Amino acid sequence: MKGNPAVILLVEDDEAHAMLTMRALENAKLANEIHWVVDGEDAMNYLFHRGKYADNGKSPRPDLILLDLRLPKLDGHEVLKEIKKSDDLKHIPVVVLTTSESEGDMIRAYSNYVNSYLVKPIDFGEFSEMVRELGFYWLMWNRHPWRD
Fold it and tell me: Where are the domains of the chain?
């Protein structure tokens, strides 16, 4: 990543899940900035720099989006669809991080061009390892033309 700070947007309405995810990312020392929003509407406002997220300095373009599916106001499927329709956003890797093992959810997510679909393990150790590995892949090993 050549010294550029890694930015992750975490879209998660469950505070306990968000805290676990952020702790796992921080323990793995993978992201310099983690921005957490609690619903799909806030995710869209953050990504399109609207309302309280209008200041680009306080809402930088993420290098990775971790997206839950079951969100208030605008569900994760709709958020994903909007991201992948946008010429400005579609290149950002989006990883669905959810408790849903539904085949329908998986098919719908991949139909909307999700980059990866992960089901959260119940065990914190397994969850931490999964988050660490996904962070290493998307933020360290995977190449982005805008980051290199």
Answer: 7-141
**What's this model's pTM, rounded to 2 decimal places?**
0.89
- Type of residue at 93: P
What H or E segment, with its residue span, contains residue 64? strand 64-67
Q: Could you tell me the sign of the dihedral formed by the alpha carbons of 144, 99, 76, 18, in that order?
A: negative
Domain 7-141 has CATH 3.40.50.920: no
Share of the chain above pLDDT 70, in %: 91
For the segment 117-140, the average pLDDT, to the nearest whole number, is 84
Strand positions, DSSP E, 1-148: 7-11, 33-37, 64-67, 94-98, 116-119
Its sign, for the CA torsion 90, 22, 97, 48, is negative
pLDDT per residue as tens digits for the range 27-63: 777 667 889 999 999 999 999 999 999 988 888 999 8
Which candidate, 16, 7, 12, 49, places its Cα nearest to that of 122? 16
- Given a contact cutoff of 8 angstroms between Cβ atoms, the answer to whether 100 and 117 are in contact is no
Q: For 26, list phi and psi in degrees, rounded to 5.
A: -70, -40
